[in-house]
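Re: the request from the purification team.
They wanted to know what the chain is likely to look like in 3D before they choose a buffer screen. I agreed to run a prediction and write the result into the notebook, where they can find it.
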Amino acid sequence: MRKLTRNPAIALRETLAPLHPAGLFRWDMSGWGLLVSDAPGRGAAGEAFAANVKRLGLRAREARGLLHVDCPADAYAALLRIDFCERGAWDSDWFELQALLASVLERDDHKGDAGLLGPDERLMRKAMLACAQGEKRVRAFAGGLRLADAEALRAGDTASTRACAALLAHWLRVERGVGIPFV
């Protein structure tokens, strides 16, 4: 397992921002990608931006006059191999999230490097976006992660929920200085 060093969604935004996406350039809350732009309606500037997105090997889907930009599929597969092991004490403000993340991350049921079914990109995309948008979104996503993890346990493939837990644990450490109290 490798250690997560940064949120791929933030890295993607930092990569694309210098390309000067004219007009709308925001987090994609539709779930089709990590970022969305109205580049298709921006003439030559929009065409240049879309061409640069594709040149960088990123996935881009155009729909309803918007360009939805996402990481390549192999970036999601790589997230299945991340780990988080920075210990910390229980913190009363974060107890519920710490308990959830510890239960997912210390479980010994993951199947090595990759999931049986492949990455659940939609779930991991939601985790990356929550971490990019701050505490309110992280706390909201945690409830969804609890349900997704229960479903993953039944299916016998928890690699994606483990990756999401590692993303949230990384956010908690970086943004709040709180580790995970592994038993």
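For the purification team: The radius of gyration is 17 Å.
Please add any questions underneath this entry.
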